[in-house]
Amino acid sequence: MPKVRPVTMLVSYYPKEGKERTLLSLLKKQWPTLNRMGLVSEMPQTIWRASDKRTGRRYLVELFQWKDSRASGRAHRMPEVMAIWNPMTAVLESMQLARVEPLATRGAPRRRSKPRA
Questions:
Q1: Is residue 109 included in any domain, yes or no?
Q2: Structural domain of 29
Q3: Is 104 among the domain residues?
């Protein structure tokens, strides 16, 4: 049996003028709904507010994991998910979906132990 691998997504959401608060509210509902439907991994959703250093444009960035490569397709057929995604579309100027895979992980620096006397 093939191993089921989660799919890590990094999504940038560019809200229409004055719609950031509405978008954030929808994003906060999204992961619990996807989780209830069995579509995401146990890794919790993380949402950041970002701003373009050059233009000052603000947007939201979300990191989460689909349970597997088919979960996104299943989500599009679920009324509970579409009840969040349809209103989200109305407040977005654009959205960038990126499937990401780690190439390297840097851990916290190790503390050096003091030599025993």
A1: no
A2: 7-99
A3: no
pLDDT above 70: residue 107: yes
Tell me if 43 is assigned to some domain. yes
Q: How far is CA 64 from CA 2, 19, 99, 114, in A?
A: 22, 22, 10, 40
Residue 109 has pLDDT above 70, yes or no: no
pTM over 0.70: yes
Task: Render pLDDT for 65-77 as a digit per residue (tens, 0 to 9).
Answer: 999 999 999 999 9
Asked whether residue 45 is domain-assigned, the answer is yes
Cβ atoms of 27 and 91 closer than 8 Å: no
Judging by beta carbons within 10 Å of its beta carbon (0-12, 13-18, 19+), is residue 106 exposed, middle or buried? exposed
Number of domains forming the structure of the chain? 1
